[in-house]
């Protein structure tokens, strides 16, 4: 049997949440084949095992069906967004899509989860992610260092508030770049935040 690789597949960020159409699910089943394992991850991506030599063709087919395809494993996950129940405009759907395009699928020392909530109710549990974006009326707050695993769960701490949409992508991208450059081996993002300190991170994104 030939070498296999994993693809991370998700639907577009949209009002209503992570919604697949029946055609998209059928397409996933068709390209995967009958003997493939498809894993539902906790971060709203399907992991699909595919033959390495067919990876590009399969990715193209999935994207043609309106799906998004990213690397699995040690990379930033696609934005883990809420359901935008306050509407596309009220909850910042376009901003979330722009942010997702900028930050999803970047190789990182450990898998990195970035959450997004369209309002302070935060029903997507953003503060349990490595980096959290919360829309507050017309601006955005960013939290860092959420750690949901284990029995000592830690919620993210407020790094910067009142960000405009224009600054949002810059700040999140800067955090990811800095983590890539400065992490010690496979240091988890929450540990990295503790070591670097919030004060220094605030200066980095200022
Ligand atoms: S975070 Fe706010 S806008 Fe998003 S689904 Fe929850 S309540 Fe609705």
TrEMBL record:
Key word Metal-binding present? yes
Keyword terms of this UniProt record:
Iron, Iron-sulfur, Metal-binding
Has keyword rRNA processing? no
Taken from the record, one Pfam family name reads NIR_SIR
Coiled coil located at which positions?
none
Q: What InterPro entries does UniProt report for this protein, alphabetically?
A: NO2/SO3_Rdtase_4Fe4S_dom, NO2/SO3_Rdtase_4Fe4S_sf
Gene3D superfamilies to which the protein is assigned, alphabetical:
Sulfite Reductase Hemoprotein, domain 1
Q: What are the GO MF terms of this UniProt record?
A: heme binding; iron-sulfur cluster binding; metal ion binding; oxidoreductase activity
Per UniProt, residues of the Nitrite/sulphite reductase 4Fe-4S domain are 104-205
Protein name as catalogued: Nitrite reductase
* Species this protein is from: Paenibacillus aurantius
Question: What does the record give as the organism's lineage?
Answer: Bacteria, Bacillati, Bacillota, Bacilli, Bacillales
